[in-house]
Amino acid sequence: MNANATPAIAVQDVSKFFVSADGRRTRALDKVNLAVERGEFVSIIGPSGCGKTTMLKMVGGILDWDEGSISVMGAPVSGPGPERATVFQSFALLPWMTVLDNAAFGLKMRGETKAARHAKARNLLETVGLADFANAYPGELSGGMQQRVGLARALAVSPNVLLMDEPFSAIDAQTRLILQTELLDVWSQTDLSVLFITHAMDEAVFLSDRVVIMGARPGHVTDVIDIDLPRPRTEETRRDPRFVELTARVWDRLRGLMTDERAGAPS
Amino acid sequence: MKSNAPARQAGARGHRLAALLTDTFWGRLTLRATALAIVLIAWQMAGDDSVALLFPTATRTFQAFIELMADGRLPLGLLVTGQALLAGFAIIIGIGVPLGILIARFPLVDRTVSPYFTFLVAVPIIAIVPVVQALLGLTFAARVTVIVLFGISYVVINSAIAVRRVKPELIEMAASFGARRLAILTQVVLPAAVPGIMTGARLALGQALIGMVVAELTIVGAGVGSLIAELQGRFKVAAVLAVAMTIVLIGLCLLSLVEMLERRLNRWSLTK
Ligand SMILES: Nc1ncnc2c1ncn2[C@@H]1O[C@H](COP(=O)(O)OP(=O)(O)OP(=O)(O)O)[C@@H](O)[C@H]1O
Ligand SMILES: [Mg+2]
């Protein structure tokens, strides 16, 4: 199995600069290293502005980087590709399209026929529990339902790698817990590799095999914490002392970065 | 519903009647017809037919209208004028929308052409009409040009704003699924900009109608403008009024047609 030798996502010594309006070059990411093994669920957590979104966009192929290399499923990234799909924080649904057409949008961009893409999209709407809403418009759905459509749209293109940028942060706390479990259900039935960005420590611990902690100015990886909680994870997991302990450990590492940030703020 | 008290039901019925009048097509028609009837009665009473030169009553104006229709002069005039309007509006949309999109997407285009359209909005177009006339003479092209000058900036500016306002995350989403520039434009940017473009088109139509009348009256055309000039020369006050009112009514019909289209196309933007 040579294929298993290469990780699903490999980010090596990647640096990224942004040129601000006054012409100054600021380093947004500094020699970031990160690997997501095949079938692995990895979360990134870190203070605001540490470059999480920047990194996800680069892996997604919609943003260039300046130094280092990024490869997905063993192939160097040079733009978006059919083996990757993204779920967005703001859902990014097209309000003039029905739920079905939204779920089928990725397939449409890949040139699939209407019949084929609708069949697949219907399937995935079923998976995320929205089969009855195929003909509704996004504006008629709750936030949680809208993000289910976003998830269906990403899954519809049968990706190997799922990129998620704070997908549940705009969703109420209760729905969020339910969506976490649903996401794990879907993930466990596939061989998907997931890179998941979040600000919620319990979410990162509950979902992940590993939690990557990033610091800011410039963005860099400070810690990687292995989450050795057994799977499948259920509501019981949230009460597991080990879960509490791991969440506390993530907070310990993060808190250090937050105070760093505060101390560094005036400069 | 069934458990409601009778009094509340009566109240609900009142609300429902109001809703029926404002929210349904036939309801709105009834409202407008009533208002129109009141205006017509007032007009009839204000008019005086004893001397031909005095302000005509509604019936005299209508008679003049029938005569002008029967001898074919009004339909012919409207046809000629309508051609200029149609050509002008087609140019406004056909050039205005693409130009607005280019302005929104390319800063270079924005910097080079936007000032002209800001100028067109700021300046009274009537002041430029003599320039057009000097350049193009008393021609069809001159009248079309005046109409375009009146309306185009509204489409250009509103299209540009609409395209700029398209949420960047929608474009990023499409790009992440491998959409190329053209697909992003046709599948995301343009549909998202439709409500703004339609608003521009509606405003532009109103302006184009004004431009049409201005062109007819200043650059004497073969259409309703020359008809009005001729009737005025022979002191046919009722006939002049009939022509003017016909133009206004047709304009109103066109505007509500565009408004209806706008509402239909914008349904999704109103729900969210
Ligand atoms: N297009 C851009 N031009 C200039 N600077 C940018 C650009 N995009 C991001 N940045 C900067 O890069 C840094 C990282 O931004 P990024 O959005 O990746 O952070 P983040 O970790 O996702 O933050 P958050 O948790 O708030 O989402 C920030 O300091 C931001 O200001
Ligand atoms: Mg972010």
From TrEMBL, chain A:
<keyword id="KW-0067">ATP-binding</keyword>
<dbReference type="InterPro" id="IPR003439">
    <property type="entry name" value="ABC_transporter-like_ATP-bd"/>
</dbReference>
<dbReference type="InterPro" id="IPR050166">
    <property type="entry name" value="ABC_transporter_ATP-bind"/>
</dbReference>
<protein>
    <submittedName>
        <fullName>ABC transporter-like protein</fullName>
    </submittedName>
</protein>
<feature type="domain" description="ABC transporter">
    <location>
        <begin position="9"/>
        <end position="241"/>
    </location>
</feature>
<keyword id="KW-0813">Transport</keyword>
<dbReference type="GO" id="GO:0016887">
    <property type="term" value="F:ATP hydrolysis activity"/>
</dbReference>
<dbReference type="InterPro" id="IPR017871">
    <property type="entry name" value="ABC_transporter-like_CS"/>
</dbReference>
<dbReference type="InterPro" id="IPR003593">
    <property type="entry name" value="AAA+_ATPase"/>
</dbReference>
<keyword id="KW-0547">Nucleotide-binding</keyword>
<dbReference type="Pfam" id="PF00005">
    <property type="entry name" value="ABC_tran"/>
</dbReference>
<comment type="similarity">
    <text>Belongs to the ABC transporter superfamily.</text>
</comment>
<dbReference type="InterPro" id="IPR027417">
    <property type="entry name" value="P-loop_NTPase"/>
</dbReference>
<dbReference type="GO" id="GO:0005524">
    <property type="term" value="F:ATP binding"/>
</dbReference>
Automatic annotation (TrEMBL), chain B:
<keyword id="KW-0812">Transmembrane</keyword>
<dbReference type="InterPro" id="IPR000515">
    <property type="entry name" value="MetI-like"/>
</dbReference>
<feature type="transmembrane region" description="Helical">
    <location>
        <begin position="142"/>
        <end position="163"/>
    </location>
</feature>
<dbReference type="InterPro" id="IPR035906">
    <property type="entry name" value="MetI-like_sf"/>
</dbReference>
<feature type="transmembrane region" description="Helical">
    <location>
        <begin position="116"/>
        <end position="136"/>
    </location>
</feature>
<keyword id="KW-0472">Membrane</keyword>
<dbReference type="GO" id="GO:0005886">
    <property type="term" value="C:plasma membrane"/>
</dbReference>
<keyword id="KW-1003">Cell membrane</keyword>
<protein>
    <submittedName>
        <fullName>Binding-protein-dependent transporter inner membrane component</fullName>
    </submittedName>
</protein>
<feature type="transmembrane region" description="Helical">
    <location>
        <begin position="84"/>
        <end position="104"/>
    </location>
</feature>
<keyword id="KW-1133">Transmembrane helix</keyword>
<keyword id="KW-0813">Transport</keyword>
<dbReference type="Pfam" id="PF00528">
    <property type="entry name" value="BPD_transp_1"/>
</dbReference>
<feature type="domain" description="ABC transmembrane type-1">
    <location>
        <begin position="78"/>
        <end position="258"/>
    </location>
</feature>
<feature type="transmembrane region" description="Helical">
    <location>
        <begin position="235"/>
        <end position="258"/>
    </location>
</feature>
<comment type="similarity">
    <text>Belongs to the binding-protein-dependent transport system permease family.</text>
</comment>
<dbReference type="GO" id="GO:0055085">
    <property type="term" value="P:transmembrane transport"/>
</dbReference>
<feature type="transmembrane region" description="Helical">
    <location>
        <begin position="29"/>
        <end position="46"/>
    </location>
</feature>
<feature type="transmembrane region" description="Helical">
    <location>
        <begin position="208"/>
        <end position="229"/>
    </location>
</feature>
